[in-house]
TrEMBL record:
Metal-binding in keyword set: yes
Reaction(s) this enzyme catalyzes, per UniProt: S-methyl-5'-thioadenosine + phosphate = 5-(methylsulfanyl)-alpha-D-ribose 1-phosphate + adenine; adenosine + H2O + H(+) = inosine + NH4(+); inosine + phosphate = alpha-D-ribose 1-phosphate + hypoxanthine; adenosine + phosphate = alpha-D-ribose 1-phosphate + adenine
Alphabetic keyword roster: Hydrolase, Metal-binding, Transferase, Zinc
Sequence similarity: Belongs to the purine nucleoside phosphorylase YfiH/LACC1 family.
Protein name per the record: Purine nucleoside phosphorylase
Amino acid sequence: MSEWIIPDWPAPQHVRACSTTRYGGVSAAPWDSLNLGGHVGDAEAHVAQNRQRLVEQLALPAMPQWLDQIHGQVVARLPASDPLPRADAAITRESRVVCAVMTADCLPVLFCSKDGSEVAAAHAGWRGLCNGVLEQTLSQFHCSPHDIHAWLGPAIGPQAFEVGPEVRTAFMAHNLQAEEAFRPAGNKYFADIWLLARQRLQAAGVHSISGSTRCTFHERDDFFSYRRDGITGRMATLIWLR
């Protein structure tokens, strides 16, 4: 049986959401075991079986709409005609459509309007986060950012996310407050991606922000981590309207 992370946030009851762990699939090492990524070298049959388990165990209304994620800012509106939209976020107003992003250290962010009429999921690596993927996602909603809930999922934590000075410089070019999210470590820095995301969301007008502080890098038994392992699987973070 798989283990799920259910967001603790003030979303309406008909808004359903979940983040997966690495438990409960059929993939062998180094993708063991609930790998949902079809682009990481795992056997296609294993990925397909894992995805079907996801649908069955969560009683999803449909297979999630997977994205071809490229660390960009494009937001796909679902349902989409393309079976694999090239985007790093997805949004829908329709029930029975499952928005999904895959991660293995990057930050997954879920959104829903406070009235529960619209939901979205975004994949925020540092490049996408810095270049505005969260703001782009918010811009697709039919309501004000003040009327949106956001949830931050498991990601690489501030004790593990080592970056070069160019990353700090890039974030500070958008907002000088970003300096608070970087801790010096020799000639590099440790970055707090959750704080960076909160800063960007708050600046955009979102004030209802909940979230996980679970570190994908350090919690080896529970999560895949690209930074830690290189070749590894992918978790999924999902949201849909029931």
